[in-house]
Amino acid sequence: MELSIGEMALIAIAIVVLFGPDKLPQIARDLGSGVRKMRGAVEDIKTEILKETDNPVSEIKKEIEKVKDAAKDFNPMKNIEENIINEPSSTPESPKIKPADDETYEGPVSR
Fold first, then answer.
1. Are the CB atoms for 105 and 99 separated by under 8 Å?
2. pLDDT tens digit string along 64-105?
3. GO: which molecular function terms (predicted)?
4. Which residue in 10, 13, 33 sits closest to 24, CA to CA?
5. DSSP code at position 98
6. What b-and-e string marks burial along 10-21, b requiring 16 or more CB atoms within 10 Å of the CB?
7. Helix (H, G, I), strand (E, B) or coil at 95
């Protein structure tokens, strides 16, 4: 927003008429202080925004590291081996009969 010289003069005359010439220096100081505070606030906001935009990337990297650590300790065969070793067989296996000892064994049939 650009102000012309005529517009700035009109604003200055309005301020002098409203507040008087003796309050003009105090108003200028307060206005300058307000502008400095606003600039500081804008810088703080800009810093926070930059920090937050960089933050998700680092959070994703942390999550990836957690998954990698969990994958190092994961062994799917370990559970299977433990189940096989620790559980007794639910069906006892009968001893296998050799075909020579089995009278009902007919062998391969060809047709």
1. yes
2. 998 888 888 777 777 777 777 766 555 556 667 777 777 777
3. protein transmembrane transporter activity
4. 13
5. P
6. eeeeebeeeeee
7. coil
Q: How far apart are the first and last CA of the chain?
A: 102
Which tokens belong to 9?
């003069």
Longest CA span, the chain: 129
Q: Which two tokens stand for residue 32?
A: 């300058």
Residue carrying the six token digits 């309005």: 14
In this structure, are residues 19 and 27 in contact, taking their beta carbons and an 8 Å threshold?
Answer: yes
Tokens 């999550």 belong to 63
Q: Which residues contact 24 (CB under 8 A, 6 or more apart)?
A: 15, 16
Cβ contact 99:107 at 8 Å? yes
CA–CA separation, 54 vs 60, rounded Å? 11
Q: Which two tokens stand for residue 60?
A: 């994703």
